[in-house]
Amino acid sequence: MRYLALVNLSVLTCTLACTIALAQDADTGRVVVPARNTTRARKVDVNVMGGGITVKAYNGKEVIVETKDVAQGNRRQREEKAPPGMHRIDGPTRGLSVEEENNVITVRMPGPQHGSLTISVPPDTNLSLRTMNGAIHVEGVKGEIAVDTLNGAIELANVSGSVLANTLNGKMSVVMDAVDAGKALSFTSMNGTIDVTLPANFKSTLKMRTDHGAIYSDFDVQPGQGGTITQKNDTPDGKFRVKVDRTLSGTINGGGAETTLKTYNGTIYLRKKK
């Protein structure tokens, strides 16, 4: 079965394969995706051109998608007085599509739009979140979490499972209550501080690097290999090259799945959860 909803601020259009609930007001579009298969974790896949994404766990079974217009220009336009004897006719300021198939809920806002998404999910939900320009905030979710933004901060609060997080320009703050021991973690930024808190008994093999900043940790990190590596080419003239690897490697609590923390401009903090 497949469920598809297309939503605008002024018009809500739904193509249904089952009964769903929709509601809207002047500034908010709301789509409720019913739970049809709760025997396995659902996945929410979000990809938008602009605007922030907030995902919060709640004690419910449905996935609730809400949009809110934050374009100040649109608000000013709506507040303009119409000329005498005339009234303003407004079209939709943005579009929203929500589609569910095989336990994967796909959320899209086509085109460069100025809005934000708030999504409420059951705790055991896998996430794939991408935005070009906007912050990403996730709270209380337990699953496989992949987040990516070009320009914006990333904040993951009290999450569990596995995390792959990347931002080109923005700081990153992550607090994990529990970690899937068999899966790698990755936290990367080009320009921004990375601050990650992990359980005290977390076992991992670390790869950490910052080109312009420092690295701090209250874990007992056992250093591994790193530094200068000489490589000899298999050529008749005996050429060789020297490669300086600035990545710091090490282990905590005996080692385990790989954890990568990397930024070009910024400080890295690896904290032990108290």
Portion of residues within helices: under 10%
Detail the poorly predicted runs: 7-28, 71-77
Q: In what range is the share of β-strand residues?
A: over 45%
Q: Tell me, what's the shape?
A: globular
Quantity of strands, as a count: 25
The CATH topology: Pectate Lyase C-like
Helical run tally: 1
What is shown here, in short?
With 274 residues, the chain is an all-beta fold.
Describe the 3D structure.
The protein has one helix at residues 72-79; strands at 2-8, 12-15, 21-24, 28-33, 42-50, 53-57, 63-69, 95-101, 104-109, 115-121, 125-133, 136-139, 142-151, 154-169, 172-179, 185-191, 194-198, 204-212, 215-217, 222-223, 227-232, 240-245, 248-252, 258-265, 268-272. It has a 23-stranded mixed sheet that branches. It has a two-stranded antiparallel sheet with strand order 21-22. The two termini are 45 Å apart. Residues 7-28 and 71-77 have low confidence and may be disordered. It is an all-beta fold.
Secondary structure blueprint with pairings:
Blueprint: E1 2-8, E2 12-15, E3 21-24, E4 28-33, E5 42-50, E6 53-57, E7 63-69, H1 72-79, E8 95-101, E9 104-109, E10 115-121, E11 125-133, E12 136-139, E13 142-151, E14 154-169, E15 172-179, E16 185-191, E17 194-198, E18 204-212, E19 215-217, E20 222-223, E21 227-232, E22 240-245, E23 248-252, E24 258-265, E25 268-272
Parallel strand pairs: 5-9, 5-11, 6-10, 6-12, 11-13, 12-14, 13-14, 14-15, 14-16, 15-17, 16-24, 17-25, 18-24, 19-25
Antiparallel strand pairs: 1-2, 1-8, 3-4, 4-7, 7-10, 8-9, 18-23, 20-23, 21-22
